[in-house]
């Protein structure tokens, strides 16, 4: 016969195994959701958008900015060509953020992209800017 201490240990072990099983099940279910990757990319892009806007790319050299710009343009074009319109638009938005002349780039994109994709890009940029404005501003200790 198992004593009270033994019963407690068995129940604790079973509870721990059930909890771990639930965690594995929930994680698998979450990752298999078709919207999971899209939502994850949106969160990352919003975070990147906010950090690029706030930093002003001050800590990057001109060559780094140029490389980042070209990489984002190429990734965006490639994804759009392969059918991943949203992913491609996200990369093009990243390129616009670091571009020294975003107005000219937007004119080029407007003339080269289909109108639906260009409109989607403008809507996403507006949504990111609205989300950035509505997020709380964290003040430095010196300012507060």
Automatic annotation (TrEMBL):
GO biological process: intracellular protein transport; protein import into mitochondrial matrix; protein targeting; tRNA import into mitochondrion
Keywords: Membrane, Mitochondrion, Mitochondrion outer membrane, Protein transport, Receptor, Transmembrane, Transmembrane helix, Transport
GO molecular function, one term: protein transmembrane transporter activity
GO terms for cellular component: mitochondrial outer membrane translocase complex
InterPro entries in alphabetical order: MAS20, MAS20_rcpt_metazoan, Tom20_dom_sf
Subcellular location: Mitochondrion outer membrane
Family classification: Belongs to the Tom20 family.
Protein name in the entry: Mitochondrial import receptor subunit TOM20 homolog
Organism: Drosophila rhopaloa
């Amino acid at each position: 016969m198992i004593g009270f201490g033994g019963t407690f240990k068995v129940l604790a072990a079973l509870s721990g195994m059930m909890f771990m099983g639930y965690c594995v099940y929930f994680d698998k279910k979450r990752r298999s959701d078709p919207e999971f990757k899209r939502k994850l990319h949106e969160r990352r892009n919003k975070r990147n958008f906010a950090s690029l806007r706030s930093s002003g790319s001050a800590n990057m050299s001109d060559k780094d900015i140029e490389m980042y710009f070209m990489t984002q343009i190429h990734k965006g074009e490639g994804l759009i060509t392969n059918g991943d319109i949203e992913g491609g638009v996200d990369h093009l938005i990243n390129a616009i953020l670091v571009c020294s002349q975003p107005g000219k780039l937007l004119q080029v994109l407007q003339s080269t992209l289909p109108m639906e994709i260009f409109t989607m890009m403008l809507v996403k940029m507006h949504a990111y800017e609205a989300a950035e404005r509505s997020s709380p501003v964290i003040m430095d200790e010196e300012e507060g």
